[in-house]
Specification:
Elements (H helix, E strand, L loop, with lengths): L6 E4 L1 E4 L6 H4 L12 H7 L2 H4 L28 E4 L11 H9 L3 E4 L4 H9 L3 E4 L2 H13 L5 E4 L4 E4 L5 E3 L4 H9 L3 H7 L1 H9 L5
Parallel strand pairs: 2-3, 3-4, 4-5
Antiparallel strand pairs: 1-6, 6-7, 7-8
Helix pairs in contact: 2-4
Length: about 210
């Protein structure tokens, strides 16, 4: 997986479910494993909305509709436009593994559950908070044209609906921004400044 995120330009998966909790994103039974296999968790993504009790696709769910059924690949469906309060419920990291395993690199919403938002960034999936008005406009663009492309520019912190030309600025923690752009987790970052840490230690006076 390419961990670095700079500019993502992609068609979108519109999952217009408010309070979409982590148990919907990845049902608890998929957590009873020691696997970190992306395909395993990707297959479990939104499983109980995608499939019935006999594991048959539910045709009315958006991910099974012809315009969106294809699994994400570069430039295709790498962005989710989610409903309000995306990722509420339990703090399970598995929800991020499912989103990432499905091929998604960015989730756009007007609000996120705080722990899930942090988990997304730790899992190299970019959470983007936009205004409710812009969120609804993005949903409208994709409903009118499933091939509508959205651009998320992390260095400049701008998300743009390429069909309408409308853009909005988004906020992100500067440290997390640096890590995402450079593909670093917290350990990678610390190892990268090991010399500075050691120098700081040698300069301290202990009593």
């Amino acid at each position: 997986m390419n961990k670095k995120i700079t500019v993502i330009q992609s068609t979108c998966l519109p999952i217009d479910i408010d309070n979409c909790n982590t148990d919907l994103i990845i049902p608890a039974r998929f957590m009873a494993t020691t696997s970190r296999d992306p395909q395993f968790f990707g297959n479990g993504f939104m499983h109980d909305l995608r499939f019935d009790k006999d594991d048959r696709p539910i045709p009315t769910f958006v991910l099974n509709q012809p315009d969106f059924v294809e699994r994400p690949r570069e430039g295709v469906h790498e962005i989710i436009i989610g409903g309000q309060n995306w990722g509420s419920g339990s703090s399970r990291e598995h929800a991020v593994w499912a989103i990432s395993g499905y091929g998604v690199r960015c989730v756009i919403s007007s609000s996120f559950a705080d722990i899930h938002r942090n988990n997304l960034m730790n899992g190299f999936v970019l959470p983007v908070i936009v205004s409710r008005e812009f969120q609804l406009q993005l949903f409208d663009s994709v409903r009118k044209d499933p091939q509508a492309v959205v651009e998320v520019d992390l260095p400049n912190q701008i998300v743009t609906d390429k069909n309408t030309g409308r853009s909005e600025h988004f906020d992100i923690n500067p440290y997390k921004k640096y890590c995402l752009i450079n593909g670093l987790d917290d350990v990678d970052f610390l190892l990268g400044i090991k010399d500075k840490i050691e120098q700081f230690e040698t300069e301290q006076t202990y009593y």
